[in-house]
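Annotated sample (chain length 217).
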Amino acid sequence: MPKSSKSKLKPQQLLVEGNSDKQVIKALCEPHNILDLFSFAFPTQGGVENLLKNLPIKLDEANLKTLGVVVDADQDLAARWQSLISKLRDFGYKNIPQVPPENGWVHTQVGKPKIGVWVMPNNQLPGMLEDFVSYLIPPEDRLQEKVVALLNKIEVEELNLYSLPHRQKAFIHSWLALQEKPGRPMGQAITAKALAYDSAISRFFVDWLKYLFEMEN
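Output written by the structure step:
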């Protein structure tokens, strides 16, 4: 009988909402040689609600030593943080800050897995993975202004089929569609250096991962 995917996971795991998050984070980690520090995990059905629902189950796994959690803030950062810390308090974690620290949160507590949380895009603003990736566009890029102008025009004329909370998804995928190799997924665009893996926000994120996982390697 083949081994289950769960048995292949390391004691150090990064829990994300879905495959897009995995591919972006993987592309950011590869240049820093830190992918071997942890395994990726995500809920079978994907999405933040399923992640939160399954968080206590994940924390209760016998072999788990360290768990990093990456979630989107979406439209309400405070509400997302409260939903997270409520799950963690129910599991017995204490001394959780009332707001997410700017550079991500890492916490060690006796008798519990080491825990870390990063709320996309930057622990300070509402948004999602696509907002984070938008910060990786090189500052000298001129195309992004054209894409923003186009989206503004479409929205004024009420031609947009996307909802406004998903505007940043429309933006980054429109920008990617206009690159030398149109339509690359976000992770591949980072690997190809169309997006900057060494931008300020990515350095903060990678530093959070190193701090969370490196002592457990």
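Annotation: The mean pLDDT is 93.
Annotation: The beta strands are 12-15, 39-41, 66-72, 105-107, 114-120.
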